[in-house]
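ARCHIVE CARD
SHELF: 3
SLOT: left
DATA:
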Amino acid sequence: MKAHINLVFIGHVDHGKSTLIGRMLFDAGMISEKDLLKLKEYAKAIGKETFEFAFIMDKSREERERGLTIDIAYKELSTPKNDITIIDAPGHRDFVKNMITGASQADATVLVVAADDGVMPQTREHAFLAKTLGIRQIIVAINKMDLANYNQSRYDMIKADVEKLLLSIGYKLEEITFTPISAFHGDNVVKRSSKMGWYDGLTVFEALDQLKPPLTKPVDKPLRIPIQNIFSIKGVGAVPIGRVETGILKVEQEVIFEPAHVKAEVKSIEMHHKKLDKAEPGDNIGFNVRGISSTDVQRGDVCGPIDNPPLVAKEFVGRIIILEHPTSISLGYTPVLHCHTATVPCVFTELIQKLDPRTGAVIEEKPKMLKKGDAAVVRLVPTKPLVIEKVSDFPPLGRFALRHGGQTVAVGMCIEVVSR
């Protein structure tokens, strides 16, 4: 039986994430020539020539007309060793909240960096977020090598820049794979390129085959499924969508959604249009439930068992590091917190300690303010109900990012929760 891997594609806007996925699916035989021709004709008709591969993933009219990914999209890909759920995440800064949701569901990532641009603001932001959200395997696809005339020195320069970035935020060399590619032309995506004879490493497809699933699945923990979306299907009813983070979901199981605080019974479970009797950690699923409507539950809610429900926080303590802030952070500051699929403004109500970012040692009690580069322990109060749990109990529900003014100002982890 093949391993199941959740894989998110991240990177700066217009660096070619959707095109890379589309080209890989086509070259792997999962998209027909006929379907690609239709997309090519459509792309030409709306003045977006060369976008046909991206349109395999970017399906909404707005995405196609604007030429960028807005929401996350999912596709299935099979390699000799792995069954992969591909998550295509937006690169544009306006849609980073959707990228965070995608990355929070992933076991590994492909970071796409364009050869003509190199490292850009969202390259850095996405790399930080991937590390914070616990992704430990990273494939760096240096794309658009055709625009650099397939030049090795250009590849080596960008590779050195990205490597420096990734090592500075805590990645290890053995966790990183680099590949020079041209996604549009298919160089080193599935097929090896004849235009880069100087490169003898893996193609992207071969690198995906080397990815390893998590060593252990937390099946012994209580069920937790952050809800990504919920649909109402005629003749079926409410169908929440999400990834099982911990525990096991079974058909006929009674569950509760928090903070909506509504109960339901599981009627059926599906993954990639296949019926399942149960779903385990890592499974991206849709599950039909009886007893609620699609308006009772929303994105950001978390599904769990009746006898051990997800924890709704009155307040919580987080250990954070400030990545970017133009001035200083003090009491009353209210950025937007992104945790699993939830997005909730949170108020800084106490600056408890300032820490040494390298050692974690306390260097100041009750600091008056925090600035860029500082690490700290802080108390936060959500402005509306939020499920967040200690990172030691439920890591995917305990890691978070704080955003303000279109940028990620801090990343952190929850170390203590006071429940409602």
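SLOT: right
DATA:
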Amino acid sequence: MHGFEEEANKKEHIALTMGDITDGEPVLARTHSECLTGDALFSMRCDCGYQLDEALRSIAREGRGILLYLRQEGRGIGLLNKIRAYHLQDQGADTVEANEQLGFAADLRDYSICKPMLEYLGISRIRLMTNNPRKVNALKKMGIDIVDRVKIEVGRNPHNTHYLATKAGKLGHLLTTHQDDEEPVVG
């Protein structure tokens, strides 16, 4: 475990590493934004905790990799605003609409800390576990060499179907449509 602090905002982030990550070969990696409700409280409203668990399992199966755990709760709006967004979602807003109703952009996450974290750890090329093409583009713009995007689709359940549809439809996440998403045909 390696700790990092952003000078500009004093946010603290960690990197969990396993195995030899400095041999020059692309490293299996996940940049994971903090989600207290999903990661620690096992919320079924999102897929965050499921993705965190699967990323750690994938790294363990491979025997080497890195997880960058970034302190940017609620797509960057913070925990208390995320709770406010949850209340708006309970009244019918989707995750994007809720953030916007609170006066925020749909996604305020900033990945600029990732490059110095990876450089400090001697990682030059990664295989990124994500479904988010915006994350891939943001990291590539910073000069991070992403040799492969590894999909990480886990945790779909009846409580997050609308959330996942919103991620795909409004935020551009690359998610497979599952047969369960369709209304059953009766007749």
